[in-house]
Design goal:
The complex is a heterodimer of chains A (about 450) and B (about 450). Chain A is an alpha/beta fold. Chain A contains 19 helices and 14 strands. In chain B, strands 12-11-10-13-14 form a 5-stranded parallel beta sheet, with helices on both faces. A 4-stranded parallel beta sheet of chain B has the order 3-2-4-5, sandwiched between helices. The chains are: A alpha/beta (about 450), B alpha/beta (about 450). Bound molecules: iron/sulfur cluster (2 copies).
């Protein structure tokens, strides 16, 4: 396996800590012909907006783009489930030739009449960008006719990467912000941004803030509601999670409404506690909040501490490889794995930027491999070289890990249990433990053969 | 009630598909291409499409799925994707070193109007395709057809690019299995081998998408039809193609190109269709049906006889791809069941619909059929008059859950169970497995709903 060739252009996307001067290339569009693990603009917009459960999500395009995104992320809702259906204009040949505007108009009217949503999002896919439908004009017209916000999302796939999709989603969301009443909102109030309620994570986070005495005006977008988003400019602070999926919105709200924001992560004990303390510190005019936060953190940690210690003893010294979408998530994962006493031997991201990779380099130990926009060959090459015991990644990486006979933990859409907050950390530790120590790996041929070389287990 | 938003009242929808019962062409082409040994499927379009296709196939097979992309940017979308495809061909051969690159288009490259053969020819003329390596292609715009059409297109491309006319005929029979599971392909091959036949199957994903855990990641697992075998399909005795929609085009193309006569049959799902498959092989190759197959057939009939009272008059709702839907419907009717709601997402044409209607002509219920329909309509029918059993892909589980109806998973995709890639549903053995699944679903329900008084040990 050592002889796997690496494309010249790709060499600059791979860095071995301690070996070479640091000069990692990133933020590039993927090369033609690579087997990249990345997705498109539409994908980015879709994951950000889709958890808004009382909005209509109509995908203007051919059937595939809609079929593949039908309820694939477990973004939970405590009320309406409209977001879990799949609506598409299913563009056909004649629409491509004559344009799809009329069809879009009809589809929107039909859907709004049937489901009475609070707002509608219309996603443009690649083909719409090419045939030149004026989606914005149709949206304006329907918005007038039906008296609800109908928002175009400019998510044509070819216009960039997933990150550009986040931006397009934020731009659409921003049109809702500022449309609702704010008079009832507490001065100690926040919006939770970039939390999508996978496995119920937003509910956990929200409960922490409520216990601290902080009002959560809107969660964007997990278990999201249109009316809450419309009032969100009334919050005193935006608390933005992770990799910048929603940093654009925070920036826009700061510019227009003066809402300050802080960036946080809810993954791992350290980061979760820091997030809560940072919010409490922001409201220093109300010291009771800080007092309640300290009590909360203490209580939560002591509740999970004993079991965490047990797991730590069992996974100590195991080696982990991380390949995730955004680099910000990787930071938290590194800290959490370290907390469990594990070594991170490879870390990569689909969409990290220069600053992200510099941070990664500073965090990592010597010899750690850092990858930007990797392909499966590169991933498997370094996993073998570094003798990883655990791979943390997304849907496309899971079977690669399993084929190679190592544990896996999904830190992406397909996680089923919440991994955020304190109980999330415990869930994560349990998952790591379960997978790394599964007896099935004893049957993995490479392990069995390489016995001595493999890590102690 | 996840589908609480499903309205009972049915309105004519002209502009809108809700909860699609199909997906797009490229994923079918990608799946077919993975059935060539050492093949890298290549998606000529932007990055998103292929990421979705790979993820969807990965979720269904729980196996690594490789493919490359032309990674279109705005520039390519305006000026065409020739430069991207050229660069892709270079990169793929130098880094991933496949035997074949199988290019399929996407909505985007189709709309722009890229001429793939012309680009490939240019790449060959410039020496970008190494000796002994190949680039093949299929056009797969998703605004026409569905994943089934895409599969059919790439299967036909294997004929167009590789089949060679020969002066002498061999005794080999070509088998085109259709858009079925790797397990089904292996079973079809096994049955032919049982009859003593030499066969070439294409595409063949067994061993590719249901491989063992080896402790190694392999880009090109051992399975798949080789280019050398594909060349020889042109000198075979005949072709047996299974599934009119998925396999018909390739079979006819081979007949036209190399004068290899073909028989296009239903998928061998159920007793009757399997009988016809076996009989066709028997007549085409002039071989006898071995006792081993007769034995399996007898076992299948035995199960039906033992349990026939449980099948009688059960109302079934089916969603599936056209070839599967037709074969399953005939099978259920032969079991004395009553398939009452039939939906396929693919617009499979008037003739297909006629066959489907003929298959249910004797069913003593009102039967609803929608070719080119979606799951939403299917659900609305069920709300109006319920069924005893549902058969379909994983998306049908929402309906089964909401309406509390017994449910058998069958089709593409299956995202929440294993088994489909290892255990076939074609042939006699596959038929036995289907019978078991149907009976399990029906009888588990009977047990669940029984009172203390009516609860039975022996069934
Ligand atoms: S653009 Fe076309 S090819 Fe791509 S995912 Fe959508 S439907 Fe499929
Ligand atoms: S067509 Fe465009 S928007 Fe749709 S999946 Fe492909 S890249 Fe994404």
């Amino acid at each position: 396996m050592a002889s796997i060739p690496i494309l010249k252009e790709r060499e600059k996307h791979i860095y071995r800590k301690g070996a070479e001067p640091f000069n990692l290339t990133c933020g590039h569009h993927s090369l033609a012909g690579v087997v990249s693990q990345r997705a498109c603009v539409f994908c980015g917009s879709r994951v950000v907006l889709y958890p808004i459960a009382d909005a209509l999500h109509l995908i203007h395009g051919p059937v595939g783009c809609a079929a593949y995104t039908w309820d694939i992320r477990g973004a939970l809702s405590s009320g309406p489930e409209l977001h879990r259906l799949s609506f598409t204009t299913d563009l056909r040949e004649k629409d491509v030739i004559f344009g799809g505007e009329k069809k879009l108009h009809r589809a929107l009217v039909e859907l709004i009449d049937t489901y009475q949503p609070r707002a509608a999002f219309v996603y443009s896919t690649c083909i719409v960008g090419i045939i030149g439908d004026d989606v914005a004009a149709v949206c304006r017209q329907v918005s007038r006719e039906k008296a609800i916000p109908v928002l175009p999302v400019h998510s044509e796939g070819f216009k960039g990467t997933k990150k550009d999709g986040y931006k397009a989603a934020c731009e659409a969301l921003f049109k809702l912000v500022g449309q609702g009443p704010v008079d009832q909102i507490s001065p100690w109030s926040i919006n939770i941004l970039g939390e999508f309620n996978i496995g119920g994570e937003a509910w956990i986070i929200k409960s922490y803030y409520e216990k601290m005495g902080v009002e959560v005006v809107a969660t964007m977008t997990g278990d999201g509601r249109v009316d809450a988003i419309r009032r969100s400019h009334g919050a005193a602070l935006n608390v933005v999670q992770c990799s910048g999926a929603m940093t654009t919105l925070a920036d826009m709200m700061q510019a227009r409404y003066g809402t300050p924001y802080i960036r946080v992560s809810y993954f791992g004990l350290e980061d979760t506690s820091k997030a809560l303390y940072d919010v409490a510190a922001h409201f220093k005019d109300n010291p009771a909040i800080m007092a309640r936060t300290q009590a909360l953190v203490r209580g939560e940690i002591s509740a999970i501490f004993p079991e965490l210690q047990k797991i730590k003893a069992a996974v100590q010294g195991k080696r982990a490889a991380i390949y995730v979408g955004g680099a910000f998530k990787a930071f938290s994962l590194i800290k959490a794995l370290r907390y469990l006493g594990m070594d991170v031997v490879l870390v990569g991201s689909q969409t990290g930027n220069d600053a992200d990779y510099e941070t990664l380099r500073d965090m990592c130990d010597d010899g750690t491999i850092i990858l930007d926009d990797a392909n499966p060959l590169e991933l498997s090459k370094y996993i073998i070289e570094k003798r990883a015991d655990l791979f943390i990644g997304g849907v496309k990486e899971r079977p690669i890990a399993y084929k190679m006979g190592i544990g896996f933990c999904d830190h992406n859409h397909e996680r089923k249990t919440p991994l955020a907050g304190y109980e999330g950390m415990l869930n994560f530790a349990r998952e790591v433990y379960r997978s790394v120590n599964s007896p099935v790996w004893r049957f993995a041929p490479a392990r069995a053969a390489a016995g001595k070389g493999a890590s102690p287990c | 009630m996840l589908l609480r938003h499903t309205t009972t009242e049915i309105k004519d929808r002209t502009a809108l598909t809700v909860n699609p019962a199909k997906t797009c062409q490229p994923i079918g082409a990608m799946y077919a291409a993975l059935g060539i040994h050492g093949c890298m499927p290549h998606s000529h379009g932007s990055q998103g499409c292929y990421a979705y296709h790979r993820s969807a196939l990965t979720r269904h097979y729980k196996e690594p799925v490789i493919a490359a992309t032309s990674a279109f940017t705005e520039g390519a979308s305006v000026f065409g994707g020739q430069a991207n495809l050229m660069q892709a061909i270079d990169n793929i051969f130098s880094v991933y070193n496949p035997d074949v690159i199988a290019v399929h288009t996407t909505c985007l490259s189709e709309t722009i109007g890229d001429d793939i053969p012309q680009i490939v020819n240019k790449a060959m003329a410039e020496g970008r395709v190494p000796a002994g390596k190949y680039v093949i292609h299929a056009n797969t715009p998703s605004y026409a057809g569905s994943h089934i059409t895409g599969f059919a297109g790439m299967t036909k491309a294997m004929v167009d690019y590789f089949a060679e006319t020969a002066s002498a005929r061999t005794k080999t029979v070509n088998l085109i299995p259709g858009f079925v599971e790797p397990s089904d392909m292996a079973e079809i091959r096994r049955m032919a081998a049982e009859m003593g036949l030499e066969t070439i199957m294409f595409p063949d994903t067994s061993g590719v998408l249901n491989g063992p855990m080896t402790g190694k990641y392999r880009m090109y697992p051992p399975g798949g039809v080789t280019v050398e075998a594909l060349r020889r399909t042109g000198s075979s005795l005949g072709t047996v193609a299974l599934g009119h929609l998925a396999s018909g085009d390739a079979a006819r193309a081979l007949d036209v190109k190399c004068k290899v006569p073909c028989q296009i049959l239903d998928l061998p799902i159920g007793l009757g269709a399997t009988d016809r498959f076996v009989d066709t092989l028997h007549r085409m190759a002039g071989v006898n049906v071995p006792d081993s197959l007769t034995f399996e057939r007898g076992q299948m009939v035995d199960i039906i006889a033992d349990m026939h009272q449980y099948f009688y008059n059960k109302r079934v709702g089916l969603v599936g791809d056209p070839d599967q839907l037709l074969a399953l419907t005939k099978f259920l009717v032969s079991l004395d069941m009553a398939p009452v709601y039939l939906v396929t997402g693919t617009s499979a044409g008037k003739k297909f619909e006629k066959h489907l209607r003929a298959a249910v002509a004797g069913v003593p219920h009102e039967v609803q059929i929608k070719v080119g329909g979606d799951m939403h309509l299917f659900h609305q029918w069920i709300k109006q008059a319920p069924v005893d059993l549902l058969i379909g892909n994983s998306y049908v589980k929402y309906i089964a859950h909401d309406e509390d109806i017994p449910y058998v998973r069958h089709g593409f995709p299956i995202l929440d169970r294993v088994g489909h890639s290892y255990f076939p549903t074609v042939g006699y053995r596959g038929g036995m497995r289907l019978l078991e699944k149907i009976l399990d679903a029906l009888l588990d329900r009977k047990d669940r709903d029984a009172t203390d008084i009516t609860f039975e040990l022996v069934m």
